[in-house]
Records
---
Amino acid sequence: MANRLGLFATSALAVSLIAGAAHAQGASNVIEELVVTAEKREQSLQDIAVAVSAFTSEKRDLVGINSVADLTNFTPGLQYSSQLDRISLRGVGRLTNVHGADGAVAIYSDGIYTSSTVEAGKTPLFVDRTEVLRGPQGTLYGRNSIGGAINVISKRPTDDFQGEIRANFANYNRRTLEGTISGPTPIPGVSYRLGANWDKQTKGWIDNIVPGMPDEGNVVDTKYFEGQLKFDFNDNFEGWVKLSASEWNNGGGGPGSRATWTPAPFPTLEAANAALVLNPGYGCSGKVTNVVNASPMGCVNPALTDPRKIASTVPYKVRLDDTYSLASEWTYHFADMDLKYVGGGQMYHYYLDGPTPVDHTAPITAYTLPGGLVINPRYAFNYQEDLRWVSHELNLASTSDSDFQWLLGAYYYSEAYEQPTYTYLPDQAQASGPFGLPGTFCAATGGICAPQQGRRIYDDVPHLDIKSKAVFGQIDWQFTPTWKTTIGLRYSHDRKSGYEDLRLRCFAIAGCFAKPELNAFIPGGIPLIDLTQTPSVVGAPAPGTPLPKGVTSYTTYDPTTGFAHRTYDDSWSAVTGTAGVQWDPDSSTMAYARYSRGYKAGGFRIGIDTTLGASPETAEETVDAFEIGLKKNWSTLQANIAVFRYNYQNAQVPLTVAQTAGGLGQANSIFYNIPKAISQGVELETIWQPINNLQILFNYSYLDAHVTESVGTVDPVDPSALDPLARPVGTTTSADIFTAGLPGGGFQRGQNLAGQQMPNAPKNKVALNANYTWDFANGGSLIASASYLWRDAQYGSIFNRAYTRSPSWDQVDARLTWRAPGDKLTVILWGKNLLDELGYEGGPGAARRAGSNYNNPLLGQAQTNFVEGIASSYPLTAPRTFGLELQYKFN
């Protein structure tokens, strides 16, 4: 890092010296004021007592902020996974895509809450300004803003006719075409804006070496359309409405697609676990007959030598249909106050197809077990999100010049969603039946197993209805010319209710059988059984026993479909708010101290990877945040600094119960609430314009987000706590047959996690940009811009281990922008990650690869348990990309 930072600093200094020879420093070199609406009224960024990072469309074009990932580079404390569409601020974020659990950073697109961060990644042509409010926003935003909030404000219709077309051509055969027109309509007081975007990339960042299989990694084909109307009815009443539509027909690109690097060897487990692949007893040793391997490298993982190569026999596909968004804003201006209604909603249906496990699918496409059973291990999944929600907010805010300002509001949000997920064996006819041992494994339905179509092994359909209501108010009192106080309160009530339907079956999985050595791989072995209708297997409580918290019915079984069914219902409420003081000793200085309390409702971990678990509900999260800040303007320098400390309670962390006994048992995915954690740090944002036309941006943040209290948690990757860094605190009765005989092995051991760093919270981040503008006599200009980015190591789990750690990384970007005289034509030559370094969007996910050899006992061959190691999947940033962008404005 030091050498590259020094090189960047030397280049920036050279630009400064060259610029200094051409321009003398003058009083006109003043940093422009930026107006934001972070507290639901227009204020200067330097006057608002909140840590806010704001990005206008012009700034984004100048620096090269074209995506949410780019936004994280220049926003202290902000982290985002483009693959998982998860975002966090200051160590407070979302660690699961289960919609029964909410995000921690609220995304508002034109005042309408959305559960996806995709809206914040729209191009600068459509977005006027993006505001990132760091820290709990429990008063004015409330819903799921325990970590912060992101406001995305669209460009609005104009009173004069104007338009713009942009085209971008980049490597990997990426092409983007977009345009907008705006102006008045024949109806007096009504103006419009229309826009469209098309983005297509056909060559992936990840090369699939299997013949006939497509590349992956940002292979996209997306379309976006929007239309707006603005109404100026009279001097007192105005309105605005926007309707937009989206469509994705991507290959291996977009949220949910493959974007990880798994450098471990190919999984070589028994033909029993999720991948249905080979074990050392068979596998590449040749003990299995008729092995068909589609990979030119055989059993060698290409990712061992190249992080952007895979050998996958099941491609990813991402699709988005029926996506419509509505946003509207209606304001009536009274003499000293405004009444504003903000309402709208969204609906979409998202589809994701891919391999499971989600790292590198085994290159084996077929093999024959002893006894003649042919295994076709192409194991795939289908994941969907079918969501609809509406949002209503009513505000009444003062507008006078009084020293006493106030705002009152009411909020209502309603969402209905389904999140169906299933895994299946597309090439295995036996996966549809008939079933073996129906009397044993379908006892709940009289020993009769329902038929199954589609060769599905796991099939889960959760449905939830979510209602959120709130009332809030905030007052600001300027009690002296230099001192102001702010007090705000919000009452929130959240309710979630719904159901889950589940079917779980086993095909050729030894651990599913009572005596696998007799049934799994010998002649006459039974390949398919149904587990759902066996209460002891899925973990359903027996009638008459206490139900788990949030579960409102005992599990029932439908003999016609084979699904198990149960219902959920619970509610949460909280009073949150803020209190602070602000000191303005002069017109260029503002200091503040603020306390905020944040809240996020509890939820359910249902769907995706659950098996009707015994503890599906999680408690609500709360944060008590203390922050002091200073915002200072000099004539050529602007510096904003914030120091904060959070007391964070009940952070919601998804954990998977470890498979330790060789079978499925009651293993499932659960929510775990970390009792206590601390997030504290320092954030600095500066803009320096030492001479005319030269601007230097420098951001630095230090973040210490760690667990302070958590005892007894079992690491699914290391259930016996054998890692040298583990701190075991005891044992459980659950066995771990895979580590039996090892020191400390043979059983599960919980751990003391005090001091462990929170997931996806790098301690240090640096962003540096220098840009210089040459103004030509004919009215044109040339802007050179270069950025250096560095991010510290981070973990992907509350278990800080080598297998969950991503190393630090850095990146160099550059842009050259030419603007023709008249400012109609702009040409941008750009490059990102010019040194083609590996960057990491977060810490890796990790999984233990353990299995058993179930050889033929009739030949005297015994069962052998083994652990092949731990596979870490690192979420990578984009490789080196470069291109040419053309912009043309007309009026």
---
Amino acid sequence: MENTTSSVEIPHPAPRSSRPEILAEEIIERLTYRIGKDAQVAKPHDWLTATILVVRDRIIDRWMESTRKVYRTGGKRVYYLSLEFLIGRLMRDAVSNLGLMQEITDALTSLGVDIAVISGLEPDAALGNGGLGRLAACFMESMATVDIPAYGYGIRYVHGLFRQQMADGWQVELPETWLAHGNPWEFERRESSYEIGFGGTVETVGGYEDQPRYVWKPAERVIAMAYDTPVVGWRGKRVNTLRLWSAQPIDPILLDAFNAGDHIGALRESNKAESLTRVLYPADANPAGQELRLRQEFFFSSASLQDILRRHLQQYPDFTNLHEKVAIQLNDTHPAISIGELIRLLVDIHGMDIEEAWNITRQTFSYTNHTLLPEALESWPVPLFERLLPRHMQLVYAINTKILLEARKEKRFSDTQIRSISLIEEAGERRVRMGNLAFVGSHSINGVSALHTELMKVTVFSDLHTLYPTRINNKTNGITPRRWLMQCNPGLTNLIREAIGDEFLDNTEALAALDAYADESTFQKKFADVKRANKVQLANLVSSRMGVRLDPSALFDIQVKRIHEYKRQLLNIIEAVALYDQIRSRPELDWAPRVKLFAGKAAPSYHNAKLIIKLANDVARVVNNDPAVRGLLKVVFVPNYNVSLAEIIMPAADLSEQISTAGMEASGTGNMKFGLNGALTIGTLDGANVEMRDHVGEENIVIFGLTADEVAKVRQGDYNPRAVIEKSPELSQALNAIASGVFSPDDRSRFQELIDGIYNHDWFMVAADFDAYASAQRSVDQIWADPKSWYSKTIRNTARMGWFSSDRTIRQYASEIWRA
């Protein structure tokens, strides 16, 4: 909500009633006059929209007051720039945070409407891919909860990430049509529209005696239009804004071309603009895909910065205090072009000296790094960058010159160090390094777990850390307990309230009081009953979607996350094959019934990741139909993993798989969600698993495998994976079965290349960690066989996960980075 420049005193509306009968009347009123439906013929989706509109009205009052408060106090605003916001469904989140869940439920019940039915119709906003986007959503909710004035900036994708379906076990990507029937949560802000340019030329004006000015004349222009969604904090304390940009053409139709019969050509500008905001992460395996992705990143970065500067000038005469009133957080390298764009806007548009603009820019920006994989730190071919953003290329070279001269003169950097910190990659194809740009243009660079932060200093940013030794700091990720406990697991929430009271609702670390109940048999029984009810719910979903029947009394062993080789779904599948062999060959042993459940999406161009999905489905087909297994093992891959599916899966998990190759997962947040909902973690000492072990206790987590240091030493040494495999009969037999086509009789060589990768180089340490992983799984079986021990550990996981709240994380950002 924007400030009004009117001097007229406008009375504030009285607080709206929360009485169920009033809410019911308002729902009928919205149904009649906003949707145009009589209650007698209204469909479930009509009731959903009417309910959202009633809830939204109560949000708007608080939204406006939150905005007025910032203008009155002149406080600092935080701007969170992210290419992803995986916000999921919003109705339950908003109703719960407003404290109206019971009242809305009662109002709908009085009208003969089931809130569970209509809330399940709300589409998931397809605005993110995985952990990075979900973290952004948790952060937005926590910023509102801890009363930090904030805007989130992103793209209003029409389709966003693809909808995943399976065709004979293969991933098929289909468009996600979440906006097909409109979005009642959003508000179009046509007054917040900005021109965004691409290509063209840069002209120099002045010179000699006068300071030269540079004028960028883009060859192409589009309009960025804002759509605002309110983000409600816990108990409605503050409502912040998620502002998403939609691209529109300046000339929607070339009428002369249309009248001349060129109907397709007449719409080319419209189609080009709309393609900018149609799909999240267009496949960048080809030049056209790379260009579209760079266009997307500049489009939303430029629109966001123009909006930030406009808002600043509403309150202040110039930009000399911008860094005192504005904090901009870059969520990964996707918005890193903002560094150059802010300098361009301050210098070229607003006439600021470039040295002053550079100093203000560095004090305004901070950057969150999410990866240690060098290939995941974005870089762009110099010719593409220069053709699309010629003025920004000039500024990148200017910044680079400044940084390299500083490093050479003041730090005596060697040629090797200079090449490492340069914004331009000179080896092979010359590329602009966005990670380095984000680093040098920010005053703070944070990792997202303690281990990740320390590894940043000695790996991807080692020389930049030497140049700027005070910039890197840690902010371990967190999750919002509202969505990931209170809303998705009401049974457990009510049980906790019954045991320790309500303090944990406002302070998650108060969950520690639950420790006293971990060994109490009556509480364990109630805890187990809640878990079983959640497992029944998940089993029903799997049965209805996939026709696979799951036994809720089995151990639910779950790995859900983006499909990637470093996350090692392959290790999990291979162990499932080995377990399958053991169950058949040793039927006399007392095997713990186990369900291995997978979910996650593979990038469309990531061949091996898609092959891993196919392998999971092929193994499931064989195992689930083999009577010799006697129901002791089920393997399931659930398609189209999203927030709503996660809200059913997380509370149902007994075992949480966090088995990435040590040193490669920055943090993880799924590990926190599982732990908070009472799952035991099996994992490597990677990412936030290290801190989870410290908080929950070594005895309440199952750790296995090489450490990050050991992985580095193995890779640098004379590692022979083939020899390791040959010494492990279970691993050797499982790999041979997969490679020889036991699970792919229609194409016996289908997985040969995948398995050859383990034999020949095993970069992700699948063979190196297999025996330790299999042994850890058998220790899980032993714990499971003793329910008292199992529930003692899992209750303590819930009790000790309070520190991993995103409220704590945001408070650390606010005090140590943003000074907000």
